[in-house]
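In this section we turn from sequence analysis to structure. A common task in structural bioinformatics is to predict how a protein folds when a small molecule is present, because the ligand can shape the pocket around it. The inputs are simple: the amino acid sequence and a SMILES string for the ligand, here NAP. Study the lines below before reading on.
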Amino acid sequence: MKITLLGSLGHINQYVIPALVKAGHEVTVITHSDKRVDQIKKLGAIPAVGSMDDEPFLTKQFTGADVVYLMLSGMSSDPLNAAKTQGQVFYQATKAAGVKNIVDLSSIGADRPYEMVGTLSFYHYIEDALSQLKDVNITFVRPVGFYSNLFSSIAMIKQQKQLVSTIPADIKREFVSPQDIAETVTALLLNTPKGHNVRYVVSDEATGQEFLEGLQKELNMPELKYVTITDEQFEAALIKQGMPKSVAEGFTIMTKSQRTPEESYADLRAHQPKFGKVKLADFIKIFGAVYRGETEGHANTIADK
Ligand SMILES: NC(=O)c1ccc[n+]([C@@H]2O[C@H](COP(=O)([O-])OP(=O)(O)OC[C@H]3O[C@@H](n4cnc5c(N)ncnc54)[C@H](OP(=O)(O)O)[C@@H]3O)[C@@H](O)[C@H]2O)c1
């Protein structure tokens, strides 16, 4: 098969590309950096340098592909309009290229409004734009929160021996690893189900208390505490770190939504996904290695090696 992937040598593609190449497929990988060209070739894939917001470039890369993988990357100071524009670019490019099969990396929360899930609702604009392609097979892959988001706790653990969150320690939360997302994405690229479908991806579930207890052992830090802060304190901290107020608000609402798992995970539960392989205990070991500086954590993809 001819397969075109957005996402360069990112956290998910570091597993997807070798699996597809090994299975004998012709894989084109889009990067917006000349620096990745040799690394992509080394993996046995074909590099295509250009940006995901460049519609004529995407149309060219998608033409002749049996299936394409779409995703969003990077932070924008205006994520709402960035998602709306990107949705239109994906729609126009896949339509003009005559693509018949699409796997789109979306997110949990893509089905709900801004007031309920904040930033996550922006994925809805991509799903909506692509949903206009009536005679195209599309699976919207909706991962839950990445384990790697928890790396943002490292600075506070180092400074104050505290895990700080707006989500109380006894609330169950769902987590996913890029490895488990990659397994789902690879299978869907090779066999995209007919029609428009949603596939949730989740690796494990755990409370903040379970994460705390795992870290106390892994970091040999029995005094590590879990501290719950208010939404206002959380938003103020994001703004202090340099995040625009509107973006910080979206993140605060997104985090707040996890305090009511019966609502935030309702559609996920209705789809009954099986748990993936990477468990909280596996992630805690990775967290320990990142904490101790033995590995680079979220930034550590094959692109960095
Ligand atoms: N964090 C979460 O909890 C969560 C939850 C649900 C969904 N998600 C989604 O999952 C995504 C992360 O997936 P990932 O970790 O595999 O990706 P990633 O590592 O964040 O990014 C993949 C690569 O895309 C390339 N890229 C960035 N901007 C580009 C552009 N304008 N045009 C073309 N390529 C561009 C970059 O590589 P080059 O420098 O080589 O171009 C980047 O390394 C997030 O962006 C989000 O959409 C995240």
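The mean pLDDT is 95. As an exercise, try to locate the residues that line the NAP site and compare them with your own expectations.
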